[in-house]
Amino acid sequence: MVLISRPGYLSKLHVAIGRSPITALLGPRQSGKTTLARVIAGERESAVFDLESPRDERRLQNPEFALSSLTGLIVIDEIQFRPDLFPILRVLADRDGGTTQFLILGSASPHLRDGASESLAGRIEFVDLTGFRIDEVGPENVLKLWVRGGFPRSYLAETEADSLAWRDGFIRTFLQRDLVQYGVRTPATVMRRFWTMLAHYHGQTWNSSELARALGQTDKTVRGYLDTLTEAYMIRQLQPWFENVGKRQVKAPKVYIRDSGLLHALLMLHDFHDLSGHPKVGASWEGFALEQVLHILDVSDAFFWSVHGGGEIDLLVFDHGRRVGFEFKYSDSPTITRSMRNAADTLKLDSLWVITPGPAFYPVEERLYVCGLAEFLVRWSSRD
After folding, report:
1. N or C: which end of the chain has fewer CB within 10 A?
2. Residue from 170, 173, 147 nearest 264 by CA
C-alpha cells in the first residue's frame, strides 16, 4: 500500500515529545497512529510495546520493572487496555535525571483522555489524529477524499468497491468489538440503527426527543449514545455560540458524522454518482468541508450560530482575536443570503468565507469572500 507523508502531525509529535515527558497520540482505530509512532521511533533509540500483542502483554506483567530499565523513547500502543499503567508512568516520568520519554497511543475509548489527564496531570501533552486531510493528499484529490473519507485504508483502496467494503467492515467491527472492549454494553444492532439515523440527521440540530421516539428509548439514553460516539471520534457535536443580541438563539448542538466516507457508507452511497444525486449531498459537503477547515485552522474551539427566524452561520472560530465565520455551500456560484449578512453584522465578523467545491476565489463585498476549499488552504496557509 502506498504511504502518504504526514509532515504536519510528525512536526506536532516532535514538538510535544521534546517538551513533555509523556505524549499521548489519540484518535480512532485505523487512523494511522501506529504508522506515525513507528516513524518517530525509527529516528531514535526506542522500545515499542503493543498491548494487543500477547508477547508484549507478557513483557509488561511487571510493568515498573520492565519499563524502569529502558531509556530513549518508549512507545506503548493501545494504552486504553491498561489504565493501570498511568500511575506507573507518572512515577517514571518524575524520576530525577530521567532520560526516558513516553509516547502512548490510544484508540477511541470513553474516559481515556480524562483518565490520562487526571493521573498524569502536568506531565502529558495530547495530540489528536484524524484521517487524511486535503493538505496531505493534495488539492487534486479533494473529490476522492470527500467520497471515500480520510481513513488510510479506505482512501488508498484500489477501487471504490474495495473502499466501501473496508468502511462497512470498519463499522461492523467498531460496533461489535471495539465498543464492547471499551465498556459499552449497548447491543450492536441498536447502536447501528442509531448511527444510521444520525447519518440522516447529519448537519442538523440535535433533537433527542425525536430520535428517542424513533428508537423507543428515553432522551437520556439516546444522549448517552451520542456522547459515546462523540468520545469515540465518530461524531462531532458542534456547540452553539451565544451572543447578547436580544433574539432567541438555538441552544442545541449540531451533529456531524466526522468522516465523510463513513457517512456515505451509512447512507449506502457507493460512489460520487450516488452521492451527487442524493438529498444529503449538500449536508455531506458541509460536514466534509467543515472538518477540513478546522484542520487547516488548527483551533481548539469552534461553534455555529443561529437564531430562530433570523441569521445563522455554519462555523464561527476565533483566530488571534479575530472573529472568522464560514458557510459551506455545494455550489460554484453560491447565493449570498440576507442570513449571512445578518450573521456577519450581528457577530461583528472580521471576515466571512463561503467555501465551495470549485477552484474559485472572489470577494463579494467588504470582508465577505467566496472561495474553493483547496484555494482556501493555500490562502490561509500564506496569510500574514
Report:
1. C
2. 147
Which of 23, 284, 287, 288 lies closest to 132, judged by CA? 288
Contact call for residues 244 and 251 (beta carbons, < 8 A): no
Residue type, 298: D
Question: Residue 238: which of 191, 201, 195 has the closest Cα?
Answer: 201
Residue 256 CA to residue 16 CA, distance in Å, equals 29
In angstroms, how far apart are the furthest CA atoms of the chain? 66
Instruction: Band the pLDDT of 13: cuts 50, 70, 90.
Output: very high
Give the separation between CA 9 and CA 342, rounded to whole angstroms. 37
Burial class (CB in 10 A: 0-12, 13-18, 19+), 208: middle
Instruction: Taking each helix axis as running N to C, give the angle between helix 7-19 and helix 33-41, from 0 to 180 degrees, rounded to the nearest 10.
Output: 60
Locate cell 450573521: which residue?
Answer: 343
Cα 147 to Cα 167: distance, rounded to the nearest angstrom:
12
Mind spelling out the 3-state secondary structure of 362-381? EEEECCEEEEEHHHHHHHHH
With CA atoms as reference, report the closest residue to 350 among 381, 322, 370.
Answer: 322
Specify whether the CB–CB gap between 333 and 305 falls below 8 A.
Answer: no
Contacts of 288 (CB under 8 A, 6+ apart): 145, 146, 260
pLDDT, one tens digit per residue, over 75-90 is: 999 988 888 899 899 9
**pLDDT at residue 259 in the model:** 98
Q: Is 62 helix (H, G, I), strand (E, B) or coil?
A: coil
Instruction: Output the pLDDT for position 97.
Output: 63
Q: How many CA atoms lie within 13 A of 122 on its CB side?
A: 4
CA proximity to 320, closest of 240, 243, 242, 380 = 380
Global pTM reads: 0.93
Domains of the chain plus CATH, in order, are 7-128 (3.40.50.300), 143-381 (no CATH)
